[in-house]
Design a protein that fits this description.
The structure is a homodimer.
Chain A lengths: L9 H9 L4 H12 L2 E3 L4 E3 L9 E5 L2 E6 L5 E7 L4 E2 L12 E4 L3 E5 L7 H27 L2 H18 L3 E2 L2 E3 L4 H8 L3 H13 L3 E4 L2 E4 L2 H8 L15
Antiparallel strand pairs in A: 1-8, 2-7, 3-6, 3-8, 4-5, 4-7, 9-10, 10-12, 11-12
Helix pairs in contact in A: 1-3, 3-4, 4-7, 5-6
Chain A binds a DNA duplex (30 and 30 nucleotides) through helix 6.
DNA sequence: CGCCCTTTTGACGAGCTTCAATTCTGGTGG
DNA sequence: CCACCAGAATTGAAGCTCGTCAAAAGGGCG
């Protein structure tokens, strides 16, 4: 077993991008990763209104935070990607305010939570701050963007977040969400999502086939939207 | 000057509802409140993309977290009420991910942030957890509810939150938001907000005049919507 | 190869927006 | 005390975005 897990592990890569992890941090992470388990698609990681035992680290695969209305309508609150923390919170006797489900096959492990080395704690805090920023972005998408804008904005967000974990490059990444998932995420219907995607294809904005999404001319799309990268800390992204 | 500030102060009342504040906590709060300042309407408390100096406690009046799109569209992310924390976060070199503006005349003070007594820290954590839950509620409103449902759901949320601070009772509270503000909050136009409100009046769901909003038959509205109170901790709301 | 999930297509309708006026309201100064 | 003003609320007509319903075509996996 490699001691500095190979170039590879996306989750580790993301956390290292968030803070300058030291040996102690890497050690506890490796220990946690050693206790990882595999989950099938559509498996529950956290259930709304139930106690949260401890935080979970998503190592591989995609997951969603979701909420149901009494009549069956579903809103997907956000998407969770490798390296994201699930159920990290600090109030007493924490209870989940939403359900978390795997979208694909996934690997998770308990997030180290006792005697957390300071640099890892830093990564956690950064992660929490980014999560909140993404929530705000989601609110803006749903409240004030057209279907087409929402879709582009989401794709750009996913791209940037996946790139952090080394899972996206050259404007392209493995898209694990179905059009129906996008619909429930973006407040649309699957039918309309489909129509918008075809429009985007016609406009040459994207290619999406065989589970791979490609964004053409990232820069152009970004300033079409007035896209700004998430920015929650004057010391991040680090330039070193 | 009263030592246990009179029954009154709404912000204090909210914090005391969140955690069982001890004498030490009340002391630092009073010290902070003594340094409060008054703000006119439409004053900036936090500016997007700028450093956050420290957390602020909203004592009186309403404020909004808001974000602008490049073409001028505005999305109000959420509403801030007396007792709410503004800019409370933990990452290094924190930068605001949204702008915070007063909606009405308001009073604020720096939130105690050094040597925070444990019970106050508990209240902070509870407050942060509730904020996040409200953000998720907002996402659900925008993504999967009709205009009418959004409005009702928002009114119920405001009612419950204001009641915590002692600012709402018997289904009624002082409504500081204009219809245009509601529109930017709920992802609608002011015109449509107006139409929905009139429908709600015709249906006998609400009365809204002279700045006072009254919700008729809270219970009925709640289960019409399948309303569930925010629930983020097994130990809250406390029954003692 | 066959089944099921996902994507795609069409026709139609509803909800919400847009634009443009008009009326109302609360606060101000004479 | 009332006239006045600016912001807020209200109204109407017309149109576009997106939803609904239903059915067909495609694609991946056992």
């Amino acid at each position: 077993m490699p001691k500095h897990p190979e170039p590879a592990d996306p989750a580790l890569r993301r956390l290292r991008a968030l803070a300058d992890l030291d040996a102690a941090a890497l050690a506890v992470l490796e220990a946690a990763i050693a206790r990882s388990r595999c989950l099938a698609p559509h498996q529950e990681i956290l259930a709304e209104r139930e106690r949260i035992a401890g935080a979970t680290l998503l190592l591989e695969g995609w997951a969603i935070r979701t909420r149901m209305l009494p009549d069956g309508r579903r809103q997907i609150l956000n998407i969770l990607l490798p390296g994201d923390l699930i159920g990290h919170c600090h109030q007493d006797a924490p209870v989940a305010s939403s359900t978390v489900l795997t979208l694909t096959r996934a690997r998770v492990c308990p997030a180290p939570d006792r005697l957390v080395p300071p640099t890892l704690e830093q990564a956690y805090r950064m992660s929490v701050a980014l999560d909140e920023a993404h929530d705000l972005r989601q609110i803006t998408r749903l409240g004030r963007m057209t279907a087409h804008e929402r879709m582009l904005d989401l794709f750009l967000e996913l791209y940037d977040r996946l790139a952090l974990a080394g899972l996206a490059q050259h404007g392209s990444f493995a898209m694990a969400a179905t059009q129906e998932v996008l619909a429930d995420l973006l407040g649309l219907t699957a039918v309309h999502v489909n129509r918008v995607i075809q429009q985007m294809r016609r406009l040459g904005e994207i290619d999406w086939s065989r589970g791979r999404l490609e964004l053409h001319d990232l820069a152009a799309q970004r300033d079409l939207l007035g896209w700004q990268p998430v920015y929650v800390s004057a010391r991040w992204p680090r330039r070193d």
